C-alpha cells in the first residue's frame, strides 16, 4: 500500500513539473548574418503554435512579452487556435494585442484547418486588424520579400506558387518543405514540432521521427543555401506538459553578411 502511495506521489510531482515547464516561457535571441540580405538590420519576432482560445495564464505571458520586445515585424507560423468552436474573435483579438500595431504576417497550421474552426471568419477578423495571412503568396515589406506557405501537413503548400519568385523570408508551419526550397529563400521560419515537447535530458526528442538528423525538429540549421530556424513554439498538444523542452518567443536579428 505504501509503495502504491509513493508511486502516485511521484506521478503527481512529475506532472506538476511538466506543467510548470510548459509555462516557463522564454525569449530567445539569435543574431544571423545572411549573404545579400536586403535590409541593414531586420528584427523579427517569431511565434508559433499558440494553441490558444485567447484565454489563460500562458497566453497572457505571451502578449506581455511580445508587447515589451522591440522588433521590426512579427511572424506567426501557424496553429493559432485550439480545437474549439466560437473562439475565433477572441483569438483574433489576442493576435492583435501581440502585433501591437507592428507589421504582422502569419501562415495557417494543421490545427487551424480543424472543421470546428471557422477559418474564413478568423481570416476576415485578422485582415480587418491589418494582420497579413499568407497562403502560397508573397508580400513586400520595405526591401524584404516575405513568402508564406499553406499548411504542408494537410498538403496545402504550393512551393512553386509561393516561390515563383525568390524570397528573402519564407514562413511555413512545418519545417518539411526545406527539402524543396532549393535556395529560393534566404531564411525560413517554421514550428509545428514543439521541439519534441517530451524530450530526453539532453533536449533530444523522445519521438524517433524527430530524432533523425533531417527532421529539423528544433533550432538553427543551414540546408542547401537556406538558413532555417524551427522554434519550439508556445503551446502544447494532447497533454499540457513539457519535459526538457520549453516554450519560447524568438527574436531574430538578421544583418547582411
Tell me the span between the first and last alpha carbons: 65 Å
**Could you say what the CATH architecture is?**
4-Layer Sandwich
Overall form: globular
**Biggest β-sheet: count, sense, barrel?**
6 strands, mixed
Low-confidence stretches: none
Number-wise, the strands total: 12
**Mind telling me the CATH superfamily name?**
Metallo-dependent phosphatases
- What's the domain count? 1
Question: What percentage of residues falls in helices of 4 or more residues?
Answer: 25-40%
Structural category is alpha/beta
| Rg (CA only) | 18 Å
Biggest sheet: strand arrangement: 1-12-2-3-4-5
CATH topology: Purple Acid Phosphatase, chain A, domain 2
Explain this structure to me?
With 257 residues, the protein is α/β, with parallel strands linked by helices. It has one domain: Metallo-dependent phosphatases (Purple Acid Phosphatase, chain A, domain 2, 4-Layer Sandwich), CATH 3.60.21.10. Helices cover 26% and strands 26% of the residues. The chain contains seven helices and twelve strands. The chain has helices at 2-22, 57-67, 88-99, 119-128, 159-162, 178-181, 208-211, and strands at 26-34, 42-47, 73-77, 104-107, 132-133, 137-141, 144-148, 167-171, 185-190, 219-223, 226-230, 248-256. The termini are far apart.
Amino acid at each position: 500500500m505504501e509503495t502504491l502511495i509513493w508511486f502516485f506521489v511521484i506521478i503527481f510531482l512529475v506532472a506538476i513539473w511538466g506543467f510548470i515547464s510548459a509555462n516557463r516561457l522564454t525569449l530567445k535571441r539569435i543574431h544571423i548574418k545572411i549573404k545579400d540580405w536586403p535590409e541593414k538590420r531586420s528584427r523579427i519576432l517569431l511565434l508559433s503554435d499558440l494553441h490558444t482560445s485567447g484565454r489563460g495564464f500562458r497566453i497572457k505571458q505571451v502578449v506581455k512579452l511580445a508587447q515589451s520586445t522591440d522588433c521590426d515585424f512579427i511572424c506567426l507560423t501557424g496553429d493559432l487556435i485550439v480545437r474549439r468552436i466560437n473562439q475565433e474573435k477572441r483569438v483574433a483579438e489576442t493576435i492583435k494585442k501581440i502585433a501591437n500595431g507592428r507589421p504582422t504576417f502569419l501562415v495557417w497550421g494543421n490545427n487551424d484547418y480543424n472543421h470546428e474552426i471557422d477559418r474564413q471568419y478568423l481570416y476576415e477578423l485578422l485582415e480587418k486588424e491589418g494582420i497579413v495571412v499568407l497562403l502560397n503568396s508573397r508580400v513586400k515589406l520595405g526591401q524584404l520579400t516575405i513568402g508564406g506557405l499553406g499548411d504542408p501537413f494537410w498538403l496545402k503548400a504550393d512551393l512553386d506558387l509561393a516561390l515563383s519568385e525568390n524570397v528573402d523570408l519564407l514562413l511555413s508551419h512545418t519545417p518539411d518543405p526545406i527539402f524543396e526550397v532549393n535556395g529560393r529563400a534566404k531564411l525560413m521560419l517554421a514550428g509545428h514540432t514543439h521541439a519534441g515537447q517530451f524530450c530526453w535530458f539532453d533536449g533530444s526528442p523522445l519521438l524517433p521521427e524527430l530524432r533523425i538528423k533531417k527532421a529539423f525538429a528544433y533550432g538553427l540549421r543551414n540546408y542547401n543555401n537556406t538558413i532555417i530556424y524551427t522554434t519550439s513554439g508556445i503551446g502544447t498538444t494532447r497533454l499540457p506538459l513539457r519535459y526538457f523542452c520549453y516554450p519560447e518567443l524568438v527574436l531574430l536579428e538578421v544583418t547582411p553578411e
